[in-house]
Amino acid sequence: MNARTRSLGGWAVMLAAALVCALGGWSYTQARGDDTLAYAKARDAATADGRSRLARLNSMDGTSAASVKSGLTAWLAASTGPLRTQLERTRKKDTAELAEAGATARGKVTDAALTALDVRAGTAVLIATVDVAVTPRTGKGGTERKRFEATLARTGDGWKIKALDAIPVGSGG
Amino acid sequence: MTQSGGTTVQDTSSKPEREPEREPGTATRTGTEEGGTGTPRAAWRRVLAATLAVALLAAGAVLFVQGRHLRDTPATSNRALTDTAGTNRVVGDVSSALGKVFTYNPRSTAATKESAKRLLAGKALQQYAALFGQVEKQAADQKLTLTSQAVRAGVTRLGTRSARLLVFLDQVSEREGKAATTAAAQLSVTAELRGDRWIIVDITSR
């Protein structure tokens, strides 16, 4: 190995290193600027947030006034926009009624899918089926199956429920 | 690049001697006057070049791994909603299939059964066959008509050959001479792409 080949080798190593760096940078910026990837991530985030918040809105511990109060606080935290405004407006009445009834409900989302997602506007529409296990203060409880369409809005604290509709039968397509 | 540049210069000047290139130690280089001033500089350049090469490699590797990290999430393999045309197609195929197989009247049970054989497969077809034996009898005995329509449908997972959906159905049943009643049904459906059509392979009631 003479100096010439060694110098060529040095150049080659340098070039290879520069190439690796450039490729790495290219790969990274591709991933960074991939709109489809960002969209897919927003979809999964909206679905996950929507599921947990919908379960929250279908749950209530009515055993005591304090538990009802914290349950309603959780409802407010899961909602935003019009739904939140409405819940805030009826909060006093809800507290009294729920404490009076004393029933406990536990909602579990059994399946959920987004039907629409607009990342720019930060809105999404989620359809979901929920099993609500209700335990009344006295007597035997049961499980209700419900189906919902929830409109989600992106907030600083993830996706929250802006509007919630139980889809009644015969509501058309 | 500095490393090789430095050696090249040194190389041309010391070529006739042949020795310095084999022994790059200080002793041989001090023999030539040019080499004497160039040596520390060349060594310095070599170190710099090596550092730069390592830095470039490291930066490239870090960027690559970061990029992989961004890309390698379960989100990427699921094309639900990201592939608009594909999503609409599977929703259309599955919605229309469910409408067809859960719609019958006393005179059309044979036709419904036929379409089920085309639109369902695997476990879904078995479940359906078990169910439809009763339904067929009921439809004839009680003159029962059932009409199903998908009112909402969303895709939870869309792959190249298989998909999972959640479908809300409205089912209107009518006994001859009686008022119609509407019931809701929610189905989690697994579908597979066979040929150019999505076929339902599993149905779970929610």
Present the secondary structure layout.
The complex is a heterodimer of chains A (173) and B (206).
Chain A: H1 3-32, H2 35-57, H3 65-78, H4 81-89, H5 91-101, E1 104-118, E2 123-135, E3 142-155, E4 158-166
Antiparallel strand pairs in A: 1-2, 2-3, 3-4
Helix pairs in contact in A: 3-5
Chain B: H1 2-14, H2 19-22, H3 26-29, H4 33-71, H5 74-77, H6 84-101, H7 109-119, H8 122-142, E1 144-158, E2 162-175, E3 181-194, E4 197-205
Antiparallel strand pairs in B: 1-2, 2-3, 3-4
Quick overview:
The complex is a heterodimer of chains A (173) and B (206). Chain A is α+β, with helices and mostly antiparallel strands.
Report on the architecture of this protein.
The complex is a heterodimer of chains A (173) and B (206). Chain A has five helices and four strands. The radius of gyration of chain A is 26 Å and the shape is elongated. Chain A is α+β, with helices and mostly antiparallel strands and 173 residues long. In chain A, helix 3 crosses helix 5 (91-101). Chain B is of the alpha+beta class and 206 residues long. Chain B has a four-stranded antiparallel beta sheet. Residues 1-37 of chain B have low confidence and may be disordered. Chains A and B meet through helix 1, helix 2, strand 1, strand 2 and strand 3 of A and helix 1, helix 4, helix 5, strand 1 and strand 2 of B.
